[in-house]
Write a structure and sequence with these properties.
single chain; alpha+beta; 13-stranded antiparallel β-sheet; 6 helices
């Protein structure tokens, strides 16, 4: 959930800042020319999902359940090795540890057999496609890209963006943006309806024109899940961090969500969920399936 919201929010942060790019009091170097800077950033925008399909990596999920005073009542974690899949958009998440205890070899083998069956089925479906089916699939993919662009175009219009200046993050210069929804705007797309409930800040790497960090808070309750039976409560906070890998590409490093949720107004819980990503390796058919699971 956090990664999805933050990736959706990124275009909003970039687009609205052109008229507000100012110098930071702590760094008097002139900031980049606004329109050229933002145009370069826009050219670099790609879904992290698309980038991740080119890599194997580890993902660790840690969920802490808290009581009303913030005391941790329960902790659970899962660690995955993640691989590209024969099915576009569907990564293979191989569970390798629960609560830092390695999964049994028999369970690993069972997971691999299921994934192999899914892979073979996907390959058979592709092989059986005729020209008409391939054309339909290409048209569907093109439609999805258009719809994504339509969402981007809408969110460009919906937020008030201001630039707070320039900050140094991990030895790299970043341009800092703050954002909040414009009063009275009526969003059309479902993604925009979610983004309209967020406000926060984002850090853009000045040299690479890439998102480094984004922090956001929920301004009002948000329904999620099937039939929106669960509701994230106002005040929930989330952040998303990306790092440069092998000095060549920016990829997710960490995401976090902290807040309360209720189901049917009967069950309530405060959750601190952390997602850690690491051990990135460029994927190839010869990539060793054994991956260090340390995030």
């Amino acid at each position: 959930m956090p990664g999805l919201l933050l990736r959706a929010a990124l275009p909003v942060l970039i687009a609205g800042a052109a008229s507000n790019l100012l110098a930071d009091d702590r760094d008097m170097r002139p900031l980049p020319e606004p329109r050229a800077f933002l145009e370069e950033v826009r050219k670099n925008i790609r879904s992290d999902d698309a980038l991740l399909e080119q890599y194997t990596f580890t993902e660790k999920r840690v969920e802490k359940r808290l009581d009303g005073s913030g005391t941790v009542k329960k902790i659970k974690s899962e660690t995955f090795e993640v691989y590209p899949s024969a099915e576009p958009g569907k990564m293979y998440r191989r569970l390798v540890a629960r609560d830092d205890v390695p999964v049994a070899a028999s369970e690993l083998a069972a997971q691999d057999r299921k994934q192999q069956a899914r892979t073979e089925l996907a390959e058979k479906r592709r092989a059986a496609e005729d020209d008409a089916a391939r054309a339909r699939r290409a048209a569907q993919e093109a439609q999805e890209r258009r719809e994504e662009q339509e969402v981007v175009d809408e969110v460009f219009r919906m937020d008030d963006i201001r630039v707070d200046g320039r900050e140094n993050l991990n030895g790299r210069s970043t341009v800092v943006l703050s954002f909040a929804p414009k009063p009275g705007y009526k969003p059309v797309s479902s993604a925009a309806k979610v983004i309209q409930k967020l406000a926060g800040r984002a850090w853009i790497d000045e040299q690479d024109r890439q998102l480094v960090r984004i922090e956001a808070r929920l301004l009002e309750n948000l329904g999620v899940g099937p039939a929106r039976l669960a509701r994230l409560q106002k005040g929930a906070q989330t952040y998303f961090v990306r790092r440069k890998v092998n000095d060549e590409i920016w990829l997710p490093a960490e995401a976090r969500f902290t807040g309360s949720a209720k189901v049917l107004l009967l069950f309530g819980a405060r959750v601190d969920a952390i997602f850690e990503y690491g051990n990135y390796r460029k994927f190839s058919v010869s990539t060793d399936a054994t991956v260090d699971t340390t995030p």
